[in-house]
# Entry
Amino acid sequence: MKKLGVVLLAMMLLGNLLHSEAVVQGQKEVVLDISSWPPGMYVAVVYSIGGVVGRSKFVVE
# Structure
């Protein structure tokens, strides 16, 4: 079985997943190109093996 690490998910508040990517150990920043995303409220969630380790809401205008 493949061991999962840390994953970043970006989704609309209604739950539509727009982006997911693995985050490597020691990585301090992730830059997303949101220029094609529709205006609205979004949430970014960082998951690790033990569950959610970070969460932030943001607005695309």
